[in-house]
């Protein structure tokens, strides 16, 4: 194994130094919480009676106080195919707990939005803030203070970040994330994309489009593109918060069940009652955050994590920013290509060697911290192996070389010498650009811009043929304080058609894109946002805008300083958006995590 990469070491030391005050305050908090909330029998008998009343056959075990009591926080609902399997989990997890003399109770539930259902609809304006609602809901669940350890049932975009942010405020407890796994592979992603572009051009019917979409998203389990949900699973492995190798084992399989069972048995051992105390707040430290960032860059993960990772880190007192991510990006090679960054999906990725291969390669090259505290039985090197069954027994095996070098390659022969995401900056602000999902020949676009203030106007202009030229499409007032920073992924088919017609096309927005977005160059998360007079608010149709991922440029030749900004739009109501006014009002910038909850909570 090589020594730790110099850039990794330098960035890690910088993050440790910057985080000293906040990390120290956080560690003091979880120490106090452990002392005050670590022993459930310290509360009154009526508190205990209320907590035990619904426990049925577990009541006697709870009263005895002998075994660990595990709190399950579940984000089950039928809207997310990824979360649908969780409906049956609590009863199974309770059985596994009883096997070791422990108990498990559902501590509470959290909401979960399916960004695929809300994509392009007004509900998407609640999506980013639903992350903080999930964190708040997890805190409500864990505030019952009845638990010696917790299990987080959540997979998708905002849910894992929200659950982790909430659980970190109870970081005196051990926590294991329990994924449910990807659905079996549907039609090829290229075919899905082809039918979408045909529909965008009016060459496919709605019935044909629906048939194609349902052949792609067809059953319980996580969608199999490498978007934010599957990037979450990758990051949980990189932070050692899963049972090793749990990320991409399909629902309903014997191996899935064995891993779920191991999570219950393991979390009981990690608590203060167990013999291997590993509280979440000590697992998620500066090195774990750096490992997560490295995983994001090495696998071409979702751009949404440029927002969620700083937020998750802040919840543990760690301050991580886009300069850290950008510097790491120049040191971490791209060693995986999973759709939208390639043609294979996460099932193909897993079968090619998956996260065990990625972690093994990164550790060998000194591109990940080997000494993080994990929830596994050993150390982080366990995560470079893959789980399997020998009869009923759960075992871990060496991974070996990549089984498909169109998807997974060694650090010595990467797809790209540097990571899948770049920081752009200039007189239009700072933005993220996902290089892993865009052909390098399209990394530079310099063209007159067309300025829009919502997605529908872009679609109308496209249909009217107004965009059939080299163009930088600017969609502004999509930032967190404007309208909750929605994903603008529905723009991809139309912009993809323009690109296929031979035009140089780029998108610039203070909004987000989906982790599944690709093909079209996009400078996203522009900060400061347009609302309140940010640079994008001063752009006008025809200004020449330069987007360049090679040089990191995001500039215009217009004289912005001598222009009045466009008027801030009035926030829309409907779909419950008016309930989120407080989150819009106090949200901080995308680079800080776009969170009113963290900003007003002093984190
Ligand atoms: O960040 C993400 O990964 C996306 O939010 C994803 O969860 C969302 O569901 C996409 O919209 C799916 O892609 P399609 O819309 O192309 O199906
Ligand atoms: S991956 Fe996206 S589309 Fe699929 S279930 Fe999760 S949130 Fe919904």
What would you say this structure looks like, in words?
With 603 residues, this protein is α/β, with parallel strands linked by helices. It has helices at residues 6-37, 45-52, 59-64, 89-99, 115-118, 127-142, 159-168, 189-200, 206-216, 228-238, 254-270, 280-283, 286-299, 305-315, 322-329, 346-352, 354-364, 455-463, 480-483, 492-500, 581-586, 596-600, and strands at 69-74, 103-109, 149-153, 175-177, 385-390, 393-398, 422-426, 429-433, 444-452, 471-475, 505-509, 522-527, 544-548, 553-556. α4 (89-99) crosses α11. The model has no long low-confidence stretch (mean pLDDT 96).
Topology, element by element:
Blueprint: H1 6-37, H2 45-52, H3 59-64, E1 69-74, H4 89-99, E2 103-109, H5 115-118, H6 127-142, E3 149-153, H7 159-168, E4 175-177, H8 189-200, H9 206-216, H10 228-238, H11 254-270, H12 280-283, H13 286-299, H14 305-315, H15 322-329, H16 346-352, H17 354-364, E5 385-390, E6 393-398, E7 422-426, E8 429-433, E9 444-452, H18 455-463, E10 471-475, H19 480-483, H20 492-500, E11 505-509, E12 522-527, E13 544-548, E14 553-556, H21 581-586, H22 596-600
Helix pairs in contact: 4-11, 6-7, 7-14, 8-9, 8-20, 10-13
